[in-house]
Amino acid sequence: MNDLNGTAGNSGTILRRPLFNPDGDTSLLTRRMINGNTTNLNDFNNMKYTWVSDWYRQAMNNFWIPEEINLAQDLKDYPLLTEYERTAYDKILSFLIFLDSIQTANLPNVGEYITANEVNLCLSIQTFQECIHSQSYSYMLDSICSPEKRNDILYQWKTDEHLLRRNTFI
Protein backbone atom coordinates (compact mmCIF):
# COMPACT_ATOMS: atom_id res chain seq x y z
CA MET A 1 0.00 0.00 0.00
CA ASN A 2 1.31 3.45 -0.88
CA ASP A 3 1.75 5.59 2.21
CA LEU A 4 2.54 9.30 2.36
CA ASN A 5 6.28 8.79 2.31
CA GLY A 6 6.18 6.52 -0.74
CA THR A 7 7.83 3.52 0.86
CA ALA A 8 6.79 0.09 -0.27
CA GLY A 9 7.79 -1.79 2.84
CA ASN A 10 8.40 -5.47 2.24
CA SER A 11 5.80 -5.84 -0.50
CA GLY A 12 8.34 -5.52 -3.30
CA THR A 13 6.07 -3.06 -5.06
CA ILE A 14 7.61 -0.11 -6.83
CA LEU A 15 5.58 2.93 -5.86
CA ARG A 16 5.12 6.31 -7.44
CA ARG A 17 6.86 9.08 -5.59
CA PRO A 18 4.57 11.52 -3.85
CA LEU A 19 4.45 15.03 -5.25
CA PHE A 20 4.27 16.64 -1.82
CA ASN A 21 5.83 15.01 1.21
CA PRO A 22 6.46 17.24 4.24
CA ASP A 23 7.70 14.16 6.13
CA GLY A 24 10.32 13.33 3.49
CA ASP A 25 13.80 12.33 4.57
CA THR A 26 16.68 14.68 3.71
CA SER A 27 19.50 12.34 4.71
CA LEU A 28 21.89 11.31 1.95
CA LEU A 29 22.56 8.07 3.82
CA THR A 30 18.98 6.88 3.45
CA ARG A 31 18.19 8.39 0.03
CA ARG A 32 17.14 5.71 -2.44
CA MET A 33 16.78 5.70 -6.19
CA ILE A 34 13.39 3.95 -5.95
CA ASN A 35 10.92 3.70 -3.06
CA GLY A 36 12.73 6.30 -0.99
CA ASN A 37 11.14 8.84 1.31
CA THR A 38 11.68 11.90 -0.91
CA THR A 39 10.90 15.54 -0.25
CA ASN A 40 11.14 16.29 -3.99
CA LEU A 41 13.39 19.26 -3.25
CA ASN A 42 16.00 19.97 -5.92
CA ASP A 43 19.06 20.49 -3.74
CA PHE A 44 22.11 20.88 -5.97
CA ASN A 45 24.47 20.97 -2.98
CA ASN A 46 23.43 17.65 -1.47
CA MET A 47 23.47 14.81 -3.97
CA LYS A 48 23.84 11.19 -3.00
CA TYR A 49 24.46 10.19 -6.59
CA THR A 50 27.46 12.43 -7.27
CA TRP A 51 27.73 11.45 -10.94
CA VAL A 52 24.59 13.53 -11.49
CA SER A 53 26.43 16.82 -11.05
CA ASP A 54 28.84 16.19 -13.93
CA TRP A 55 26.13 14.63 -16.11
CA TYR A 56 23.81 17.57 -15.46
CA ARG A 57 26.47 20.14 -16.44
CA GLN A 58 27.44 18.20 -19.54
CA ALA A 59 23.79 17.85 -20.58
CA MET A 60 23.19 21.57 -20.09
CA ASN A 61 26.23 22.31 -22.28
CA ASN A 62 24.72 20.16 -25.03
CA PHE A 63 21.88 22.64 -25.52
CA TRP A 64 21.39 23.80 -29.09
CA ILE A 65 18.67 25.32 -31.24
CA PRO A 66 17.88 23.46 -34.48
CA GLU A 67 17.16 26.61 -36.50
CA GLU A 68 20.70 27.83 -35.85
CA ILE A 69 21.97 25.11 -38.20
CA ASN A 70 22.00 26.14 -41.85
CA LEU A 71 20.35 23.45 -43.98
CA ALA A 72 20.66 25.24 -47.33
CA GLN A 73 23.02 22.56 -48.62
CA ASP A 74 20.65 19.81 -47.45
CA LEU A 75 17.90 21.42 -49.54
CA LYS A 76 20.17 21.13 -52.59
CA ASP A 77 21.41 17.62 -51.78
CA TYR A 78 18.14 15.88 -50.90
CA PRO A 79 16.77 15.85 -54.48
CA LEU A 80 20.13 14.52 -55.71
CA LEU A 81 19.90 11.37 -53.60
CA THR A 82 19.15 8.19 -55.47
CA GLU A 83 15.70 6.71 -54.93
CA TYR A 84 17.19 4.10 -52.58
CA GLU A 85 19.15 6.69 -50.61
CA ARG A 86 16.11 8.94 -50.28
CA THR A 87 13.94 6.00 -49.17
CA ALA A 88 16.53 5.02 -46.56
CA TYR A 89 16.85 8.64 -45.38
CA ASP A 90 13.07 9.06 -45.13
CA LYS A 91 12.51 5.80 -43.26
CA ILE A 92 15.36 6.39 -40.83
CA LEU A 93 14.06 9.88 -40.14
CA SER A 94 10.52 8.56 -39.62
CA PHE A 95 11.87 5.98 -37.18
CA LEU A 96 13.94 8.54 -35.26
CA ILE A 97 11.01 10.95 -35.04
CA PHE A 98 8.88 8.21 -33.53
CA LEU A 99 11.61 7.08 -31.11
CA ASP A 100 12.26 10.55 -29.76
CA SER A 101 8.53 11.23 -29.50
CA ILE A 102 8.06 8.07 -27.43
CA GLN A 103 11.03 8.96 -25.25
CA THR A 104 9.60 12.43 -24.67
CA ALA A 105 6.32 10.87 -23.56
CA ASN A 106 7.82 8.02 -21.53
CA LEU A 107 10.67 9.56 -19.53
CA PRO A 108 8.25 11.43 -17.23
CA ASN A 109 6.53 8.07 -16.58
CA VAL A 110 9.85 6.65 -15.40
CA GLY A 111 10.45 9.75 -13.28
CA GLU A 112 7.26 9.12 -11.34
CA TYR A 113 9.04 6.23 -9.64
CA ILE A 114 12.46 7.80 -9.04
CA THR A 115 12.77 9.12 -5.49
CA ALA A 116 16.33 10.48 -5.76
CA ASN A 117 15.57 13.98 -6.95
CA GLU A 118 18.99 14.54 -8.47
CA VAL A 119 18.32 11.62 -10.83
CA ASN A 120 14.94 13.08 -11.73
CA LEU A 121 16.76 16.24 -12.80
CA CYS A 122 18.63 14.12 -15.34
CA LEU A 123 15.40 12.61 -16.63
CA SER A 124 13.89 16.07 -17.00
CA ILE A 125 16.86 17.32 -19.01
CA GLN A 126 16.79 14.19 -21.15
CA THR A 127 13.08 14.75 -21.83
CA PHE A 128 13.81 18.32 -22.88
CA GLN A 129 16.61 17.16 -25.17
CA GLU A 130 14.32 14.60 -26.81
CA CYS A 131 11.91 17.47 -27.51
CA ILE A 132 14.74 19.37 -29.21
CA HIS A 133 15.58 16.28 -31.26
CA SER A 134 11.96 16.08 -32.42
CA GLN A 135 12.03 19.77 -33.27
CA SER A 136 15.24 19.28 -35.25
CA TYR A 137 13.65 16.53 -37.34
CA SER A 138 10.69 18.77 -38.12
CA TYR A 139 13.09 21.55 -39.04
CA MET A 140 14.98 19.17 -41.33
CA LEU A 141 11.78 18.10 -43.06
CA ASP A 142 10.49 21.66 -43.36
CA SER A 143 13.82 22.63 -44.95
CA ILE A 144 14.09 19.90 -47.57
CA CYS A 145 10.62 18.88 -48.69
CA SER A 146 7.03 19.91 -49.31
CA PRO A 147 4.41 19.79 -46.53
CA GLU A 148 2.83 16.73 -48.18
CA LYS A 149 6.14 14.87 -48.31
CA ARG A 150 6.86 15.99 -44.75
CA ASN A 151 3.62 14.41 -43.49
CA ASP A 152 4.31 11.25 -45.47
CA ILE A 153 7.72 10.89 -43.82
CA LEU A 154 6.42 11.77 -40.35
CA TYR A 155 3.85 8.98 -40.42
CA GLN A 156 5.66 6.27 -42.40
CA TRP A 157 6.09 4.37 -39.15
CA LYS A 158 2.32 3.72 -39.23
CA THR A 159 2.17 2.33 -42.77
CA ASP A 160 5.58 0.75 -43.35
CA GLU A 161 5.44 -2.85 -42.13
CA HIS A 162 9.08 -2.94 -40.98
CA LEU A 163 8.91 0.38 -39.12
CA LEU A 164 5.59 -0.52 -37.52
CA ARG A 165 6.98 -3.85 -36.32
CA ARG A 166 10.06 -2.15 -34.82
CA ASN A 167 8.00 0.55 -33.15
CA THR A 168 5.48 -1.96 -31.81
CA PHE A 169 8.38 -3.85 -30.21
CA ILE A 170 9.53 -0.69 -28.47
Q: Quick summary of this structure?
A:
The chain is mainly alpha-helical and 170 residues long. Helix content is 56%, strand content 0%. It has one domain (51-169): Ribonucleotide Reductase, subunit A (Orthogonal Bundle).
What does this structure look like?
The structure is a single chain. The chain has 170 residues and is mainly alpha-helical. It has a single domain, classed as Ribonucleotide Reductase, subunit A (Orthogonal Bundle). Helices cover 56% and strands 0% of the residues. The chain contains seven helices and no strands. It has helices at 51-61, 72-77, 83-111, 117-144, 147-154, 156-159, 161-169. Helix 1 (51-61) packs parallel to helix 4 and helix 3 runs antiparallel to helix 4 (117-144). The longest helix has 29 residues, at 83-111. It is elongated. It starts with 50 loop residues before the first helix and ends with a helix. It comes from Candidatus Avitreponema avistercoris. InterPro entries: Ferritin-like_SF, RNR-like, RNR_small, RNR_small_AS, RNR_small_fam. This is ribonucleoside-diphosphate reductase. GO terms for molecular function: ribonucleoside-diphosphate reductase activity, thioredoxin disulfide as acceptor. Belongs to the ribonucleoside diphosphate reductase small chain family.
How much helical structure, as a percent, in the residues? 55-70%
- Report the uncertain regions: 1-7
Overall tally of structural domains: 1
In oligomeric terms, what are we looking at? single chain
Supply the CATH class: Mainly Alpha
The CATH architecture name reads Orthogonal Bundle
Number of strands: 0
Cofactor: Fe cation
GO molecular function: ribonucleoside-diphosphate reductase activity, thioredoxin disulfide as acceptor
Family: Belongs to the ribonucleoside diphosphate reductase small chain family.
Protein name: ribonucleoside-diphosphate reductase
